[in-house]
Amino acid sequence: MNEIVYIIGHKNPDTDSICSCIAYAELKKKLGVRAVPVRIGGVNRETEFVLKYFGVEAPAFLKTVKTQVSDLNIDLINPVSKDISIQTAWHIMQMNNRRILPVADENGKLLGIITLSDITENYMDTLENNILSTSGAPLRNIVETLKADLLVGSEKEFRLTGKVVVAAMMPEHMGPFLEKGDIVLIGDRKESQVRAIRSGISCLVLTCGGEADQDVLNLAKECRCVVLKTNYDTFSAARLIDQSIPVGYVMTEKNLVCFRLDNFIDSIRDRMIQTRYRSYPVVDENGFIKGFISRYHLISPRRKKVILLDHNEKSQTVDGIDEAEILGIIDHHRIGDIQTAGPVFFRNDTVGSTATLVASMYFENGIIPAKKVAGLLYAAIISDTLNLKSPTSTHVDTKMASRLAGIAEIDTDDFVGKMFQAGSVLNEMSPEEVVGYDFKDYAFGKHKIGIGQINSGSSSDAEHARAKLLDYMKRARKEKGYSFLLLMITDLVRNGSLVLYAAESASLPRAVFGRADAPDGGIFLDDVVSRKKQVVPLISNAVRSLSLP
Q1: Which domain range does residue 227 map to?
Q2: Is 293 in a helix, a strand, or coil?
């Protein structure tokens, strides 16, 4: 399978989300899938500790899965040098059935484009007989175009500054027509050859396979005049020689409309409508040419392929999910509102951690996770189940955690203490960091509700931060349009949570907590440590009761 499959956790990812993505991506790779774990939010301190402990890099950040130019089957066209002749460019187009070529420097950086119409228009519109000198045509182009033999001179000695002249007159009448730096097309008349060379021309082209005596060639060498021999007749040579013009002279380089690989399809579609060109060059972030796209490429783009872990609600997932192809969902939360175009692999179970499901899939496929991977999965289970004390924890979680700890060969008591301590740093974080540490959005009917959760090993730390957290939550609720904003500060010692909240009206917190307090405040709930199993159901039931007649 060639295409990348992104393994994606939820926004504001916790340890379970990050570690499960990494582990599942490794499993998919072993099963022959080109899987890449990514994150769509920052890495919290607890997760940082876990990744560092096991020596694993954090997944790369993915901003969106909206369809981009890089997802299109673009036309791959090799670039040409700006110095090649328009005749060579035309032959390349004919051979490959192309109407356009990118022009790039020696490193592949786009300089411009040349089209079939550029070549034909320039050739048909050229009336000046000094076009070769004006365009800076190199000698090699003239040699290639005329299929000529170089008899005298070299590229270094070629100094074209004049025009192209066909010496059809008598030798004594040539003077007024010749100037220094000209190219002269001539036959095998010796007197005319000598007269032309002595006039200071830059190049003598012997047409019709004409010859020159040795003394004429010696004179040409002495006068630094390049001598070429072609089998074309004079008329054909005169007609062809202007095709030696380098493409750099006729290419389009100003006001060039090109797209980048990371451009979104929506934006380039509008630009195409405005400009109406046949093809558009595509470059990477450094300006290196990657190919061309046309309107027909937009008809059937390749959608990014994703597998969602630890969530299945649209508000918690990556931006642009409607434009992606969801291949699977692995989760242990309630069934949310994400829809798919067709049947997908879906695994959802009432366990305490997504990592438990991922670990099970390793063993079901007869694969033992690597030591580091087992450590990540163990840490994820312990984190999400609060060391297997959460009401969400099951016998399956306990059994899987024990098996993974054995594979990872870790001192579980020492590791768990250090992991929770790393995440329990309320006083070192800003209110925004605390609320967003492990944050999820929910939609309950018309209500937009946000719930954050963070662990704390000290009740005094939580009380000390209470005032500034509530001030921030009041502002954030209004600015972001939440009906109800909550933060669970879970006390691992007291086995409960201080729940701070800011509400649009008093009715919802009253219905949730069964108290008549003001809309904004806090309450300590004993034995409440699970957002998923204890707090979310409370809110769901409260919203349902408020909607009843």
Answers
A1: 138-244
A2: strand
pTM beyond cutoff 0.90: no
316 Cβ contact list (under 8 Å, min separation 6): 10, 11, 336, 440, 441
For residues 42 and 437, the answer to whether their CB atoms sit within 8 Å is no
| Domain end position, chosen among 396, 423, 450 | 423
What is the per-residue pLDDT across 47-62, written as a single tens digit (0 to 9) for each?
999 999 999 999 999 9
Stated as kind and residue range, the H or E segment containing 372 is helix 371-384
d(CA 230, CA 211): 10
Indicate the pLDDT class of residue 220, thresholds 50, 70 and 90: very high
Residue range 167-200, pLDDT digits in tens: 988 888 888 889 899 999 999 899 999 999 999 9
CATH number at residue 414: 3.90.1640.10
Handedness of CA 124, 272, 299, 2 (dihedral sign): positive
- Taking the C-alpha atoms of residue 544 and residue 78, their distance in angstroms, rounded to an integer, is 62
Is residue 130 situated within a structural domain?
no
Name the domain count of the chain. 4
Query: Is 79 among the domain residues?
Result: yes
pLDDT tens digits, 428-451: 789 998 999 889 999 888 889 999
> Looking at beta carbons, which pairs linking 505-510 to residues 24 or more positions away fall under 8 Å?
507/546, 508/447, 508/483, 508/484, 508/539, 508/542, 508/543, 508/546, 509/484
CATH of the domain at 240: 3.40.1390.20
Are residues 309 and 274 part of one domain? Answer: no
318 near 296, Cβ under 8 Å?
A: no
- Report d(CA 506, CA 406) in Å as an integer: 50
Strand partners for 450: 441, 485
Neighbours of 106 (CB within 10 A): 6
- Edge to edge, the sheet with strand 345-348 lists 60-61, 35-39, 5-8, 305-309, 325-331, 345-348
For tokens 């007269």, the residue is 195
Phi-psi region of 279 (alpha: psi -120 to 50; beta: other; left: phi over 0): beta
| 442 shares a domain with 473 | yes
Q: For residue range 245-298, what is the model confidence (pLDDT) as tens digits?
A: 999 999 988 889 999 999 999 889 888 988 878 899 999 999 999 999 998 888
Listed residues 282, 298, 314: the one ending a domain? 298
Give the burial class of 55: count Cβ atoms within 10 A of its Cβ; 0-12 exposed, 13-18 middle, 19 or more buried: exposed
